[in-house]
């Protein structure tokens, strides 16, 4: 067995490396932390906690959000901007409280929420080839009754397209977990998207499915990424889109 640079890998770590090896290096190898978490991350965490405790402890999601989304977590943020996001979180979760049964009726009942996992995959379930990857960690936002499906909550100012759902690696990661832990693939993966600044019907549901072949392909790619990480291939930077790697570089200059 290889002496892996990482003790485990998650979807976010895999995504970081695929997007920008430099970003991965700063976050996962050097373990640098920014002085303050980004607004979107703080907002998303508070919303996730509200949805989790609504299922697990039957708490009012609006109250949980208000208690968790606090000013002290975002001191560098303009107060007006903070209050805008606070109001938006309250609006979205109020809508969710009122429409949840209607939204979830086609999907089924949520039986589990925020399931943390760590799985060891030593063999490809399709090809039967032996694999050399560290444990795969993650958190599944919700599981529906039986094998009806699994899913993830998102916050976004943009509409989630079917193409985004069908091409994302995230559902495939969680299909893999369900296969290893539950013994079969779920029927579907659902993104429940809380769309900021959308006044009418701000909650969108997008479903997608994965095959065993897609799960196998993901495992092969994870092993390739792990190989690159173990070889310390961190020199490449992101080629498109926004990336936080520059923030870490600024930290290192100080």
Task: Describe, in plain words, how this protein is organized in 3D.
This protein is an alpha/beta fold and 254 residues long. It contains nine helices and six strands; from the N terminus they run βαααααβββααββαα. Strands 1, 2, 3, 4, 5 and 6 form a six-stranded mixed β-sheet that branches. Helix 2 crosses helix 9 and helix 4 (61-68) packs antiparallel against helix 5. The protein starts with 8 loop residues before the first strand and ends with a helix. The mean pLDDT is 94.
Fold blueprint:
Layout: E1 9-10, H1 11-19, H2 21-29, H3 39-56, H4 61-68, H5 79-104, E2 110-119, E3 136-144, E4 150-156, H6 162-167, H7 170-182, E5 189-195, E6 203-208, H8 212-230, H9 245-253
Helix pairs in contact: 1-2, 2-9, 3-4, 4-5
